[in-house]
Design a protein that fits this description.
By secondary structure, the protein is of the alpha/beta class. It has three helices and five strands. It has helices at residues 30-42, 60-66, 81-90, and strands at residues 20-24, 47-51, 75-78, 94-98, 115-119. A five-stranded parallel sheet has the order 3-2-1-5-4, covered by helices on one side. It is globular. The relative contact order is 0.24.
Length: 128
């Protein structure tokens, strides 16, 4: 048996406003969050932002699904997603919501850094 400390969970204001953040809007499946973390690590995402409620805890299932990405991509947990998005906007982040029913095309969007991509929940998509 080994005893280990929990991985650090920085506050939103501790994240340097550069690069890309992923914001998860009520994604509840730990396998999906693990896959997102693996992809985030591969694309050097600065951090992943989740809510305290309606998101999986960093347990064994999520850690196994992340395949080591938990050690590379910090997870920031916020109480209120709307306030967190407003805080990101105030810090200069360009906010983009990804939704399969959206009218715009991400490929033609004029994106800039720092960028926060908001991903919606399984089935429901983004909340209004």
């Amino acid at each position: 048996m080994a005893e280990a400390d929990a991985l650090p969970s920085p506050d939103l204001d501790e994240i340097e406003p550069s690069g890309i953040l992923l914001v998860l809007d009520q994604i509840t499946d730990p396998h999906n969050v693990g896959a997102i973390l693996r992809t985030a690590a591969g694309f050097a995402v600065t951090a992943v932002v989740t809510t305290a409620r309606h998101s999986p805890e960093s347990t064994g299932v999520l850690a196994k699904s992340a395949s080591g990405a938990l050690e590379y991509v910090p997870i920031v947990t916020v109480q209120n997603l709307a306030r967190a998005l407003e805080q990101l906007r105030e810090r200069g982040y360009f906010l983009v919501g990804l939704d399969s029913t959206g009218e715009g095309d991400l490929g033609s969007a004029a994106l800039r850094s720092p960028l926060a991509l908001v991903l919606g929940a399984e089935g429901k998509g983004l909340r209004n």
